[in-house]
Amino acid sequence: xxxxxxxxxxxVYQVYVRSFADGDGDGIGDxxxxxxxxxxxxxxxxxAIWLTPCYPSPQLDHGYDVADYFGIDPAYGDLAAFDRxxxxxxxxxxxxxxxxxxxxxxxxxxxxxxALASPPGSPERARFFFRDGRGSDGExxxxxxxxxxxxSTWTRVTEADGSPGQWYLHTFSPWQPxxxxxxxxxxxxxxxxxxxxxxxxxxxxxxxxxxxxxKAAELPDAPPVPEGTAENDVWAHNPYTxxxxxxxxxxxxxxxxxxxxxxxxxGRELVTVSEAYTPDRxxxxxxxxxxxxxxxxxxxxxMLAPWRVDTxxxxxxxxxxxxxxxxxxxxxxxxxxxxxxxxxxxxxADATEMSSWTKNNLVYTGAPVDLEVGTRRARAAIxxxxxxxxxxYLFQGEELGLPEVLDxxxxxxxxxxxxxxxxxxxxRDGCRVPLPWSTDAATSFGxxxxxxxxxxxxxxxxxxxxDDWGAYSVAAQQDDPGSVLSMYRSLLRARRSLLDPDAPLExxxxxxxxxxxxxxxxxxRGTVTVVVNVGAVDLAVAEVLPALVxxxxxxxxxxxxxxxxxxxxxxxxxxxxxx
Length: 579
Ligand code: GLC
What we know:
CATH architecture of the domain at 503-576: Sandwich
Radius of gyration: 24 Å
Pfam families: Alpha-amylase (PF00128)
Distance between the termini: 28 Å
Bound molecules: alpha-D-glucopyranose
Number of strands: 18
Strand content: 5-15%
CATH class of the domain at 503-576: Mainly Beta
Domain Glycosyl hydrolase family 13 catalytic: 14-432
GO biological process, one term: oligosaccharide catabolic process
GO molecular function, one term: alpha-amylase activity
């Protein structure tokens, strides 16, 4: 029996709390809604859920602006509702992860309010990055850094006496002031926060934006960026914060805290997963994951790869080799709340072009989309990702094959990226549209509970749903063997029953006989051979893979129409060993 911890090959389902299910009919997703829909997650076969931040927050970045790290936002429920969710999830053997945001808090956090009310140089300001401006009157920002969400990374404050004052640093929006981790208060607060939630039964944390937590002490100007760099990518070139090494001391401190917690609480196995985008740099990714830092760190490159054999392989093989050689686990994902949904991404007319490879999930291309093609490829992509060694993180709605909603009106958009770039970047709202559970438009397709609130109809959802959303609903898909939902369910079952978690990832040679097949990606996990055909033409297995594969075990395209001697276009198949 493997002694590996539960999370090593777990399937974790990301719940975007605001959009999953609304239990009280106010149009906003909440904890009671999640509890009421746990059956869906159990039937899907996930090991854990990760809740996006549900702490008290002004919701200017939908919870990634935390005003109190020790509570629940009233829009989402309260601590009792949280405890109920954890207990009900546990009853179904589903673990619960939260989301911790260490880089910044909300400008409504009591610490930031106190900092605004206190003079320059005060201990209250030392928890943040307050600096004097440049120019004769301090009217220019302290440096040239650009924010992830557009614009300068600095905002000037008005001092208590009404005079124009210092500036504060915010890597994201002005409502998200960065915390200075060289301040002991900051370190201590997060230590007690982790323990507070572990004591409530939480099994771990997804850790937000870890790559920007460190900062060079003098905050020097960033060097010029390469010509043609997209507006949303400028921040990523700032060497004085992105991957700045000082933060690693704090991640080591967190790991010590967690190891000690586990030692004091036998039976608890906790996990942290870091969010660090490290394009083409497995060596950098490795710095975040391991026995003295985060348990896991997302391997994001695969998510952003164009639909081509060379890019798929180059986003899997080097990171898998580097992390595996170091004994570090692999953590795959194809979707999250910051990234255009896979069905749309893979369906874009430029999905097979190198030019679409932005390597930045906030930079989208505006190419026209064919959803049928995108859905086929998304089914193939998850069938590939599910075969890789390590854990797999899903984003709510991908199991329904939801597309990105591209035509949200400007009046409905809420993402700070949209506002900070004055609409030049549409932002992430299109992947955050409330989920459809039924075909009943009167309850926002089952998103809002009709029973709560008695006779009053449920409020409109906080973000409008497209008219055809019901066709994607759980109710519409669950009894259809060809649906995306049925495929996800059987894929997760097959992953559990057919794959040996300890089997290494191998890349068999196709052999001269097979001839050049640039559309085929072939990998092996133990006795299972995984074949992806990224081309538009069906390929006969016997011709292209002689002696490599046996019985057809699984196919990502529509069930029921499958000829086992063929790997259809834009399809991933799993095969048993050659007979
Ligand atoms: C992370 C989150 C994103 C958030 C940002 C600021 O990238 O995933 O949603 O806006 O950090 O917290």
